[in-house]
Specification:
It comes from Funneliformis caledonium. This is 14020_t:CDS:1. With 99 residues, the chain is mostly beta strands. It has one domain. The chain contains no helices and 9 strands. The strands form 2 sheets. It has a 6-stranded antiparallel sheet with strand order 2-5-6-7-8-9, with no helix packed on it. The protein is globular, with a radius of gyration of 13 Å. The chain starts with a strand and ends in a 15-residue tail after the last strand. The N terminus is likely disordered.
């Protein structure tokens, strides 16, 4: 899971507000692991071969698979590095173009 304040056209998006999180048990909201961005200049990344990405490899989506390797965020959110994704949601807020 993630918080994504804006999408950029650059390879990396900078923000101090981004965080990612994971639940150890999908049936309970207890034991949530929350990780705030550590290197805000690499908070969000965009690659041609993957879906949404956070940090360098802190949370990367490849279709129905994911990868988590701690790098740009403060805490590791998963013990298992590679995993299958059941469901994810993305909310994009369009930023109006300047006139």
């Amino acid at each position: 899971m993630k918080y994504l304040p804006k999408i950029t056209k650059e390879r990396y998006g900078a923000t101090k507000e981004s965080f990612i999180f994971s639940f150890k048990n999908k049936l309970s909201t207890e034991n949530c692991i929350l990780s705030r961005v550590n290197y805000d200049n690499r908070a969000i990344s965009k690659w041609n071969h993957s879906g949404p990405s956070f940090g360098w490899k802190d949370l990367v989506v490849y279709g129905d698979e994911g990868l988590c390797i701690k790098d740009s965020y403060k805490e590791e959110i998963r013990e298992i590095k590679e995993f299958f994704i059941e469901e994810y949601e993305i909310n994009i807020e369009e930023v109006p173009a300047e006139v």
